[in-house]
Amino acid sequence: xxxxxxxxxxxxxxxxxxxxxxxxxxxxxxxxxxxxxxxxxxxxxxxxxxxxxxxxxxxxxxxxxxxxxxxxxxxxxxxxxxxxxxxxxxxxxxxxxxxxxxxxxxxxxxxxxxxxxxxxxxxxxxxxxxxxxxxxxxxxxxxxxxxxxxxxxxxxxxxxxxxxxxxxxxxxxxxxxxxxxxxxxxxxxxxxxxxxxxxxxxxxxxxxxxxxxxxxxxxxxxxxxxxxxxxxxxxxxxxxxxxxxxxxxxx
Length: 251
Ligand code: GLP
What we know:
The chain is an alpha/beta fold. Helices cover about 30% and strands about 15% of the residues. The protein has helices spanning about 15-35, 50-60, 90-95, 120-130, 170-180, 195-200, 215-220, and strands at about 5-10, 40, 70-75, 75, 105-110, 140, 165, 190, 200-205, 240-245. The strands form two sheets. The chain has a seven-stranded parallel beta sheet with strand order 1-10-9-6-2-3-5, with helices on both faces. The chain has a three-stranded antiparallel beta sheet with strand order 4-8-7. Bound molecules: 2-amino-2-deoxy-6-O-phosphono-alpha-D-glucopyranose.
């Protein structure tokens, strides 16, 4: 028997982000007070943007410091240099890192330009770095239309680790507008695996809007299956979904 993660449904995404950001600020402060850095797993996509804006607001208000925060991003497109505007390196600088006091050496994002013959070693080193940091205290997630977390497309095993993945046609279609057309969307990425993500001590998945309602319902109440990698969260002891009213409307 598994017990589904709680669905916390808020009036709107702003309220959800305020709540979770306050919780995260408290978590970082208490971990730092225990004498070690807080290790955060971070996500990209449109969904976390208002959450990062709230973290920046808390930082500017003096309520959250990233000075002793270490981060690991979920994924990066293969073939995109860090400076490409659609790379997740660029995204993270733009939406969070450029606005807070995180030391550059504390930031980890897979390298999308790694040559094929070094890819496996790069992925293994990413896993080693997470372990060396003490594991992830808090993992932030969005959810793709295919039910993916990170870029763990349908078929990604429960125990998968950081590796090269092929993007689902639906995922590439969803990314096409920001890349200026499907032809420009990378076909592959490097992604933490489901197993990597599920080892995080606490997990928060964010989803906004009617367009996510059906997949949120499937992930939370459907069978636990590798066809919907977010369904694996049902087996995590401390995962929660933070939803706006629309994303929670099918529950
Ligand atoms: C991409 C990212 C995921 C993200 C998903 C949904 O596939 N790799 O981490 O959850 O997009 O994106 P959005 O938040 O824009 O709906």
